[in-house]
Amino acid sequence: MEFKDFSLLVQDTKVSGFVDGLERGELLGSKCETCGKIQYPPRSDCPDCFGTEFGWVCVTGTGRLLSYTTVFVTPEHFTPDLSRTAPCSSYAYQPSPVGIVEMDNGLRVMGWIRGIPADAIQVGMRLEPRPEVLRDGRATVILAEERTE
Amino acid sequence: MGKVGIIGVGQGRFGIRSDASLRELAFEAVKACLEDADIPLADVESMIVSVASDELSFALQPTAQVVDYLGFHPKPSFRVEAACASGSMAVRAGWMNIASGLADLVLVVGAEKMTEVPTSMATEVLGRAGDFLWEYPFGMTFPGYYAMIARAHMAKYGTTQEQLAAVAVKNHHYGAMNPYAHMQKEITLEKAMNSFMVADPLKLYDCCLISDGAAAILLASEKMAKRLSKDPIWMSGLGLGTGSLALAHRDDLTTLGATVEAADQAYEMAGIDAKQIDVAVVHDCFTIAEIVAYEDLGFCPRGEGGPWVEDRQTYIGGETPVNVDGGLKSKGHPIGTTGVSMAVEIAKQLRGEADPGRQVQGAEIGLSHNVGGNGQHSAVHVFSRS
Hints:
The complex is a heterodimer of chains A (149) and B (386).
Chain A: H1 8-11, H2 17-24, E1 28-32, E2 38-39, E3 54-58, E4 63-70, E5 97-103, E6 108-113, E7 126-133, E8 139-144
Parallel strand pairs in A: 6-8
Antiparallel strand pairs in A: 1-2, 1-3, 4-5, 4-7, 5-6, 7-8
Chain B: E1 4-11, H1 22-37, E2 46-50, H2 54-57, H3 63-70, E3 77-80, H4 86-99, E4 105-112, H5 119-127, H6 142-157, H7 161-175, H8 189-193, E5 197-199, E6 202-203, E7 213-221, H9 222-228, E8 233-242, H10 257-270, E9 279-281, H11 287-296, H12 305-310, H13 327-330, H14 338-351, E10 365-372, E11 377-384
Parallel strand pairs in B: 2-3, 2-4, 9-10
Antiparallel strand pairs in B: 1-7, 1-8, 4-7, 5-6, 8-11, 10-11
Helix pairs in contact in B: 1-3, 4-14, 7-11
């Protein structure tokens, strides 16, 4: 979801290129130019060698789902605006599951779990983290079944 | 380095306290504490105050309200903060204040007013205590984070939703006997199991309450404690650990490394092991958090926290009674207050002054465990009669 609109602080960091990557269809991590440590989410400063020069690396492939949840009681920022629904009508809000996958190289990626029925999600299943540009133009990270193309 | 003792404790009623302001809540607790110690505020040399949230109180330095209302100025006072572990940080800062020799008599106060904002906003403020840059944008809330911990624990160890609910049933059982508790009523396993989903697999009764309330303890140097009190409770071990901001960065989602670290430090300092704890209060912000705490604190083997509560090992009469004050679940969780309230409860237990029906008979050694955020901070304190 909405990194660009919601998490404005990402724009104001030294790793703001992450958002541009999402829009190009690339999920970007960082690689320390000094010691080579690869990290996701990307960070400009290396906690191992304190190096401050970094380059971008694409996070690709699938990872193992470590855990997931579906948040039904939402924070204010995510609360659906029901004030515009027609009088006497209602709809059931269906939140999206969220999960964390561990890539084979140890990187962890959080994302919305997309395209899998909630009761079919299982810890340990393999999912592919990838960028997704939503219909309204905002970019986010999703976890989905591996593309077979 | 001399010992530091608790020579007075007090707290006000937890709940939706629309009848009182932050400063008035704190006053209730301080008054009770000073009366318990039978010492005037004029004798207190320094005061540490914990209020966790500027956002919930809509003010910077909310603790200044407390200090002013008590008329404590111009004596030294400062605020400490570590989200839901703020109270234990205040206790720790109080201990340090005395151990360093800066003061001999220090008042530690925790106060929080959480219900002045809608639940959705409190949920947002609390959720942003996690990694607001990289995890909060996925709609993560505090229940959401602990739901992921629960899901991982269930997948790894076979922990069940019934076992989670058993924690809630126990804590409400004891909370019903605590006149200061927010929700003084028992619940059934069925009621807990049938409550609505907050963040799958955590249901309403897996979650602690959003509460207002305050607590205070009076700490004294060894010399002062022996002179002023006939029944001081000593702080014999302190431990403090930290953990990653992002949940995704934890090596293992089924444990809080910060708690393991803090427990190691506290046990070593006190010269005890987990089996010697007679009574404990642990950070049950969610039922899964209590189960993980049993394991991280060494009360039961790893992975066996679910069966442990089902076997009633954490009821009075079991191996280690846990949260017999109702815990965060039933007593309530005014976030900046909780750690101080934990010290109040353990001191009362060790003095043999807990409420009828929930006193652990002959308790000599007690423990408090207080987590900030979803494991960014964890404080473990060991208290003893001798």
